Amino acid sequence: MNFNATLIGQTVSFVIFVWFTMKFVWPHLLRQMQNRETRIADGLAAAEKGQQSLVEAEQRHSELLNEGKQKAAEIIAQAQRRGDEMVEEAKVSAKLEGEKLIFAAKGEIDRERTHAKEQLKGEVAVLALAGAEQILKQEIDRNAHNKILDQLSSKL
């Protein structure tokens, strides 16, 4: 076995293998690696954009949430003011209605009092006439007159 011929044959085979690999395989591998590198770079850029979009969306969400809370607080404050106004209006209305009822009741009381006085005057007149009639029917006696007047006054 010749050591030099084997070594030269292996060297030639290796050189042919390297040439073949560099000519046909290596460009394909480089192209694939470049494509992968581009996809990774694009993915990283998209991830960075996504992170920025997420931060912006969170900020916008926070702003909208604060704005919504502020509007809700304003609406609640308006409702509270309107409720207070309605209560005040109801108080004023109730007070006016109460005054009207009191005025009407006083008028009714005055009418009833006048009517009662007229009835009492009529009854007193009838009783006075009845008393005078009884006094005139009996003999004129001071004690009898006083007794009759006491009976009349007890009836009144």
Classify the beta-strand content into a percent band: under 5%
Biggest sheet details: none
Contiguous uncertain segments of 5+ residues? none
- The tally of beta strands, per DSSP, is 0
Through-space gap between termini: 167 Å
Radius of gyration: 61 Å
Order of helical and strand elements = HH
- Report the structural category: mainly alpha
Count of the domains: 1
Shape: rod-shaped
Q: What level of helicity do the residues show?
A: over 70%
Q: How much is the average pLDDT?
A: 87
Number of H- or I-type helical stretches: 2
Structure characterization notes:
It is a single chain. With 156 residues, the protein is mostly helical. It has one domain (3-155). The chain is 96% helix and 0% strand. It contains two helices and no strands. It has helices at residues 3-137, 142-155.
Characteristic terms for this protein:
mainly alpha; 0% strand; rod-shaped; 2 helices; 156 residues; single chain
Write the layout of secondary structure elements.
Layout: H1 3-137, H2 142-155
Summarize the model shown:
The chain has 156 residues and is mainly α.
